[in-house]
Design a protein that fits this description.
Layout (H helix, E strand, L loop, with lengths): L7 H4 L2 E3 L5 E4 L12 H6 L3 E3 L2 H10 L3
Amino acid sequence: MPKQKTHKGTAKRVRVTGSGKLVRERSNRQHKFEYKTSKRKRRLDGIEVLSPADTKRIKKLLAK
């Protein structure tokens, strides 16, 4: 049986923490900050844990 390949597009966007959770960066944090409010930019800071509903599907793409 051939091995499951990692989906490289997903691997660039999601990483697995030590406890096995999946984390990702929030969207809308790349450019055009002039028209985004400070409140909105702060809210989008940091990383977000993926929901349990998505975790199984995404782990399959990551070959984990």
